[in-house]
Design a protein that fits this description.
Protein name: Galectin
CATH architecture: Sandwich
GO molecular function: lactose binding; laminin binding
Oligomer: single chain
Mean pLDDT: 95
Helix content: under 10%
Distance between the termini: 33 Å
Radius of gyration: 14 Å
Structural class: mainly beta
Number of helices: 0
Pfam families: Gal-bind_lectin
Shape: globular
Low-confidence stretches: none
CATH class: Mainly Beta
Organism: Malurus elegans (Red-winged fairywren)
Strand content: over 45%
Keywords: Lectin
Largest sheet: 7 strands, antiparallel
């Protein structure tokens, strides 16, 4: 069973705004997840750093989910996370995509569901949320 962290709803993130997530990664982490979307069934961005899970090692897998239907996986091989370390990730919402800012690296993921507002955020897995801020 994947441990579920806090769930945020009614965030109201619109293009031009950003969400910054800070927390601690478990010392024996296998993977963790951050979901950003309209609600738990419409995920514009499923962000999943995998230390060693589902056959991936030190890879960030991103996807989108529409009800029960997942999109095509997008993989980033830059992996700035360490087991037992801290993580700070900023998600910048744009008109057509989301920019993911990592330490020393950034990439964009398309807004496949054409969400005009991101209301929902959750974390799961080997990650303890310490702070959440948006501007």
């Amino acid at each position: 069973h994947v441990p579920q962290g806090p769930v945020c709803t009614n965030l109201g993130l619109k293009p031009g705004q950003r969400l910054t997530v800070k927390g601690k990664i478990a010392p024996n982490a296998k993977s963790f997840v951050m979901n950003l979307g309209k609600d738990s069934t419409l995920l514009g961005l499923h962000f999943n750093p995998r230390f060693d899970a589902h056959g991936d090692v030190n890879t960030i897998v991103c996807n989108s989910k529409k009800v029960e239907e997942w999109g095509a996986e997008h993989r980033e091989t830059v992996f700035p996370f360490q087991k037992g370390g801290t993580a700070e990730i900023t998600f910048g919402v744009n008109q057509n995509d989301v920019t993911v800012h990592l330490p020393g690296h950034q990439f964009t993921f398309p807004n496949r569901l054409n969400l005009s507002v991101f209301d929902y955020f959750d974390t799961q897995g080997d990650f303890t949320l310490q702070s959440l801020s948006w501007e």
